[in-house]
Design brief:
By secondary structure, the chain is α/β, with parallel strands linked by helices. The protein has one domain. 35% of the residues lie in helices and 16% in strands. The protein has helices spanning 23-26, 32-37, 41-54, 60-66, 68-71, 92-96, 135-147; strands at residues 4-6, 12-15, 72-75, 86-90, 106-107, 115-117, 122-125. A 7-stranded mixed sheet has the order 1-3-2-4-7-6-5. Helix 3 packs across helix 4 (60-66) and helix 3 (41-54) packs parallel to helix 7. The protein is globular. It starts with a strand and ends in a 6-residue tail after the last helix. The mean pLDDT is 92.
């Protein structure tokens, strides 16, 4: 599908408002390394934050470099994919592009800009950038996903 990049059976889908540059060059065999190499530091930040959230253990670098696109998909359209993955919409402006998001979204304890809906496997967060997405917020999201049954292995 031209609007996604990564796993066809992801555990986590990260929805973003824009495509990376040169996507056609690495669409067939995407890796975080190739995505970062063909784009700016901005994309390194995005995949690093996603890796920190989805990694099965503390080795988020190894996960990012070896397994990122085995377990994660990036989607660039404002519609949730029809799959059983967790759906993560990053950024308020990006969230506004989506119609009919479930109304059962609740804030995560300890944050006023992280929201989760465990029934629909939906996560709403700030845009995945270091300025908006601190390590503390990454920890809150990891903990909430673990409590909700997110499978990292």
């Amino acid at each position: 599908m031209s609007d996604t990049l990564g796993s066809t059976l992801p555990r986590l889908v990260l929805y973003l408002p824009h495509l990376p540059q040169g996507i056609e060059q690495y669409r067939q065999m995407p890796t975080a390394e190739r995505l970062i190499a063909h784009n700016s530091n901005h994309w390194r930040k995005i995949v690093t934050i996603a890796a920190k959230i989805a990694a099965p253990d503390a080795d988020w670098r190894g996960f990012r470099d070896k397994h990122f696109f085995d377990r994660i998909a990036l989607c660039f359209t404002p519609a949730l994919l029809p799959n059983d993955a967790w759906h993560w919409i990053g950024g308020k402006a990006n969230q506004a592009r989506f119609d009919d998001l479930p109304s059962t979204i609740t804030p995560l304890a300890g944050s006023d800009d992280l929201f989760i809906d465990t029934e629909h496997k939906l996560l709403l967060t700030p845009y995945p950038d270091y300025r908006q997405f601190s390590d503390r917020k990454i920890g809150l999201v990891r903990q909430a996903l673990a409590q909700a049954g997110f499978e990292r292995e």
